[in-house]
Write a structure and sequence with these properties.
Layout: H1 2-14, H2 28-49, H3 59-89, H4 93-121, E1 124-128, H5 134-138, H6 142-146, H7 148-163, E2 166-173, E3 178-185, E4 188-196, H8 197-210, E5 222-230, E6 234-244, E7 247-255, H9 271-282, E8 286-291, H10 298-306, E9 316-320, E10 331-334, H11 343-350, E11 357-360, H12 366-377, E12 381-386, H13 391-400, H14 405-411, E13 412-424, E14 430-431, H15 436-444, E15 453-454, E16 466-477, H16 480-488, H17 490-517, H18 523-529
Parallel strand pairs: 8-12, 8-13, 9-10, 9-11, 11-12
Antiparallel strand pairs: 1-5, 2-3, 2-7, 3-4, 5-6, 6-7, 13-16, 14-15
Helix pairs in contact: 2-3, 3-4, 7-8, 11-12, 12-14, 13-17, 14-16
């Protein structure tokens, strides 16, 4: 009462004639207290509504009780808890209160506002392709409470993969009792968790559910897709399952959402190579074909080339499987074999839509290759990728698919093959320890070996010694002489089959050695990628 009188006196003296109880028909202090009481009542009603500890059957009674005595609980429960703790520890109530306050202060200092913010930023939400959350798919009530730890673990695995920049998540049964979870980071697999089989099988089912896959089917291969939203980004995922010994395997591809950040100036092309590619892109027709094994960065380079094209003045249509990055002002078609949408059928329809630039995600068969090469002859610029180890093997692959040599020679303009090398971590890279034989080889070839570095390992790179990747390229321009030889010389084709890959690897090895000498990567990484 003395406190209320003091507040009332203070308000009256500070705002005379405005809030004086003598001039107002109500007391401002009582009004504030009433508003606070109503707010606390409604707050406790809301807590009861969404609290998993209150069963649905008792929610109505609990809400009515909270509406009347909710704020009282705010003061009663801590007092009861303090008295109980004091009696258990045989200490005075004052000492218990003092200990509670000290713990609260230490907790605030250790966590701070920055930690609260990071927890908000690290929150993740898994959605299916229609926008339903994983909680909606699993339902609410008892089922939700029972599976909450599984859903939390599922979300944590996906969040960890995004934070570690993983391109793939592999969930495999190690034996009948243990599953391993591995991330492919910078092209290399690493084991991050080992989980009990019964728990991990529930995690697999939750991912299959959000990816619109049949969780009852354990043996037949399936595929699906889902989305993850965090505070800073939205990522798409492709999931594929298969029955294996000891259980079910799940592979998840993280579709790169940062692909659009790469340009021809930062993917790793040398200045001379970049000039060749830029000149080919400016032409109204022709085909630029990118080749390399899976995971060599072909799609990233493809988007970097599309970044150089004016999408406002040129009609760009892409056919991809899947679409990894949304291009504003471009028409993008996603291949769907189940709906009978294939590369070849999509390409035939594209040619009737007045395209200037056609982008083919991957050439897989003769029909797709033939349509793309003919389009490059009829006033269209075609960008495409193909799985092969070198430029020479890409030519052989096209011919082996059944494409006529004259069509290959007249349609192709530029061939590029590429690989990805891991970058040394800037935080922990150290000078390389070279053997005398290595030093002798470098001296004999006139190579400056003093800037060669090697991996060490730190917390920033999670002990690997590498962080990020850079591309190395072998660019081949099909001039008139080479085109004539493709058409007329069977010996050239035989030579390409025998020694083409060897020459391509030699060119890539030279480019990789440039990166080693400049301290970007290591000799060990060169041997791992190029051989």
């Amino acid at each position: 009462m003395e406190a209320l009188a003091f507040i009332k006196c203070f308000l009256s003296s500070s705002l005379p004639g405005v809030v004086s109880s003598a001039t107002l028909p109500f007391s401002p202090v009582r009004l504030v207290l009433l508003a606070g009481w109503v707010y606390l009542c409604l707050y406790f009603v809301q807590r009861v509504q969404f609290s998993p500890s209150v069963s649905r059957r008792h929610k109505t009674i609990a809400k009515i009780a909270a509406l009347f005595i909710g704020p009282i609980l705010l003061f009663v429960l801590p007092i009861v808890n303090i008295v109980r703790k004091a009696s258990e520890s045989h200490r005075s109530i004052l000492e218990t209160v003092k200990e509670r306050l000290q713990n609260a202060v230490e907790s605030i200092k250790s966590s701070g506002l920055g930690r609260l913010k990071s927890e908000d930023d690290s929150a993740i939400k898994l959605l299916d392709t229609s926008g339903r959350s994983i909680e909606e798919i699993y339902g609410h009530g008892k089922a939700k409470r029972r599976d909450s730890h599984v859903l939390d673990l599922t979300e944590q695995i996906i969040l960890d993969a995004l934070e570690q920049r993983a391109s793939d998540i592999l969930i495999d049964p190690k034996d009948e009792s243990i599953y391993t979870i591995r991330f492919r980071v910078d092209g290399v697999l690493r084991t991050v968790k080992q989980i009990k089989a019964e728990v991990c099988q529930a995690v697999v089912n939750s991912i299959k559910a959000v990816a619109n896959m049949d969780i009852s089917e354990k043996r037949r291969p399936q595929d699906g897709a889902f989305i993850a939203k965090t505070a800073g980004r939205t990522a798409s995922f492709r999931a594929a399952s298969a029955g294996v010994i000891n259980g079910e395997k799940l592979s998840i591809r993280v579709l790169s959402q940062k692909t659009g950040m790469f340009t021809l100036d930062n993917v790793g092309l040398l200045e001379k190579q970049r000039a060749i590619v830029k000149n080919a892109i400016k032409k109204p027709s022709g085909m630029i074909l990118m080749c390399g094994p899976t995971g060599s960065g072909k799609t990233t380079t493809l988007y970097a080339m599309l970044d150089r094209i004016d999408l406002f003045t040129r009609n760009v249509i892409t056919v991809e499987d899947p679409i990894e990055y949304v291009l504003p002002n471009a028409s993008q078609i996603e291949v769907n074999p189940k709906a009978d949408i294939t590369f070849a059928k999509s390409l035939r329809s594209i040619l009737r839509q007045d395209p200037d630039v056609i982008c083919v995600g991957e050439i897989r068969d003769e029909e797709t290759a033939g349509i793309a090469l003919r389009a490059s002859q009829t006033g269209h610029l075609v960008l495409a990728t193909i799985h092969s180890n070198s430029n020479a093997s890409a030519l052989v692959r096209l011919l082996d698919l059944g494409v006529m040599p004259v069509l290959v020679s007249s349609g192709l303009t530029v061939l590029t093959s590429q690989r990805l090398l891991r970058r040394l971590c800037r935080n922990c890279k150290v000078p390389a320890e070279l053997s005398q034989s290595q030093i002798h080889k470098f001296r004999r070839k006139g190579i400056n070996y003093k800037n060669i570095l090697q991996a060490s390992g730190c917390d920033k790179c999670r002990g690997t010694g590498y962080r990020g990747r850079v591309g190395i390229f072998d660019v081949l321009v099909l001039d008139n002489k080479l085109k004539t030889n493709i058409v007329n010389s069977e010996m050239l084709i035989d030579e390409l089959r025998k020694n083409g890959d060897k020459k391509g690897r030699s060119n890539l090895r030279k480019e990789a050695l440039r990166r080693v000498v400049s301290g970007i990567t290591s000799l060990e990484e060169l041997k791992r990628v190029v051989g």
